[in-house]
């Protein structure tokens, strides 16, 4: 087995076997809209400013790595779907 070092590039591209994702779960009853405060926070964490905060934590013990460049685009699409009128977003997720 080839050894892979825990460098940022290896971790961000899923090459380092001991890396994992941080998943966010929140309680949104079916057919309800996303809470505006939660939506604002979620938009921030996928924004360039939010990802800059994550990047600043890369060299700490926690070792967080920013999202790949295409991931914020996908996450923003999901947030847009969650903002549809109640009931409609669940059909697309």
What is the straight-line distance between the termini? 38 Å
The sequence of SSEs as H and E is HHHH
Radius of gyration: 16 Å
Q: Give the uncertain stretches in residue-range form.
A: none
Task: Give a structural overview.
- By secondary structure, this protein is mainly alpha-helical.
- The chain has one domain (8-91).
- The chain has helices spanning 8-12, 36-46, 48-56, 71-82.
- Helix 2 packs antiparallel against helix 4 (71-82).
- The chain is elongated.
- The N and C termini lie far apart (38 Å).
- The mean pLDDT is 75.
Write the layout of secondary structure elements.
Elements: H1 8-12, H2 36-46, H3 48-56, H4 71-82
Helix pairs in contact: 2-4
Brief overview:
The protein is 40% helix and 0% strand. It is built from 4 helices and no strands. α2 runs antiparallel to α4.
Features:
mainly alpha, 93 residues, 40% helix
């Amino acid at each position: 087995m080839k050894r892979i070092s825990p460098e940022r590039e290896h971790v961000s591209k899923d090459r380092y076997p001991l890396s994992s994702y941080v998943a966010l779960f929140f309680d949104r009853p079916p057919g309800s809209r996303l809470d505006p405060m939660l939506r604002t926070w979620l938009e921030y964490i996928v924004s360039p400013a939010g990802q800059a905060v994550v990047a600043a934590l890369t060299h700490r013990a926690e070792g967080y790595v920013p999202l790949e460049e295409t991931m914020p685009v996908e996450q923003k699409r999901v947030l847009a779907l969650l903002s549809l009128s109640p009931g409609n977003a669940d059909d697309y997720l």
